[in-house]
Amino acid sequence: MSNTHTLNEHFIGGEWVASANAATLPIINPATAESIGTLTLGNAADVDRAVRTARNAFASWSKTSGKERASYLRAIAQQIRDQAESLARLSSLNNGKPLGESRMDMSDAAATYEYYATLAEQLDARQGVSVPLQASEFASTTYLEPAGVVGLIVPWNFPFVTTAWKVAPALAAGCTVVLKPSEITPLVEFELANIARTIGLPPGVLNIVAGDGAGVGAPLVDHPEVAKISFTGSNRVGERVMQSAARRIANVSLELGGKSPILVFEDADPQQAAELIAAGIFFNCGQMCSATSRLLVHRDVAQSVLERLKAVAEATLVGDAFSEGVTMGPLTSANQLQTVCGYIERGLAEGLKLLTGGARLPRPGYFVEPTIFLDVPSSSALWREEIFGPVLCVRTFATEQEALELANDSDFGLAATIVTADMERARRVARGLQAGHIWINGPQAVFPETSWGGFKRSGLGRELGPWGLQAFLEVKQVTQPVQ
Ligand code: NAD
Predict the structure, then answer these.
(1) What is the mean pLDDT of residues 404-421?
(2) Which of 109, 149, 207, 440 is the most exposed place for a label (fewest CB within 10 A)?
(3) Catalytic one among 101, 121, 183, 255?
(4) Does 255 participate in catalysis according to the annotation?
């Protein structure tokens, strides 16, 4: 694999096109903090060119059958499967996650394109369906039409996967796309352009403009020809996206932050609980919107669960994505390292007790220890704010009601995990939690067929499943008197 990656062009109209802008950003390997390449940042002129190209391509792409679009989606999936190993390596190099996690990402991305291929095929039979009316003197039929040119903006924590969650349904719906990957992890995202060329996706259907938020993200959101914005990222930026979109009543979907709870009841198996807790906060170095970063453990099992959790956390092998046995990589960027270390220092300054961790690793790169704070009051910023790193906050509870109240006492509502031997209780608590996705006694498995998105400030709308496709469709009703 080459150590110098020069990304100085955008993918527009099926071609690599020189950027209208000269500004660059280094591409960093977070395991060494060294530059491994250069990204040329786009600007508003690049965005405009990509949007106009996508608008021209929309005329024919929107008229293709779902079956035809499905064949392209399946071809993308096949390419991802064929190139999975090299794509996973590129992703780990730039994001820092252990290679095994990147391999899972590639498999998830391929499955997403395959799933939306099936939904694209089914879309043909859903056109012109008549609606039964109470008023028998009228007839009405429904059409599901592509929204238009869509702007897709993604973060750096699950490159290729978050992108697949947007690109696959958008193409399935018949939309044409301008994608803005994160400027932090462009390496693997750019490979999607090569895949589009390899499979002969019609030019202009998928366009990729590299750049940062100000130079590319904001002009994309503001572009009058962009019918819909689908954004995944922070609440800070999500609010700005929604405000900008409001000025021209553009449709938006937002997948934002989280501060998700994991609830461990007194009948839970302590070892299983410890492993689920650790996976929920240390996978991807805690850089998951769905990270279960608040542990609520019943006081009767707290000691045995925490003893085991300490052992699991301290057995985490932190290191380079490509080293044998590594289970946690570095944080992905210097900024994220600063943010996470800032929260750890704040916790220590608040006098919070550490169960384990609390330090940066004394080596190059953005490595921190798996960190667990005990008895964190709900007034603490560490309990309330998204840290986006391997930092867990723990509290105990005495009753199911107290656990539910503490779990729901959050601005966010993305996900939650319940660990209990009592299935009746698991179902009851699941219904009581204000969260978009809940796991019972299992890891954070997310399937293309199920929904993804949050309650409260975790976002607006849902990705994946039929909801993910619907997000890129306009509903058209055609009504007439019966002759
Ligand atoms: P971010 O908000 O800083 O950036 C996300 C994307 O938005 C990047 O591509 C960035 O360049 C772009 N951007 C920045 N400013 C912009 C602007 N003014 N207009 C348009 N685009 C702009 O987020 P991040 O640091 O890349 O990602 C971490 C955040 O993403 C966390 O808060 C996390 O919870 C969230 N996230 C949510 C989900 C979910 O499904 N809910 C999934 C992954 C990440």
Answers:
(1) 98
(2) 440
(3) 255
(4) yes
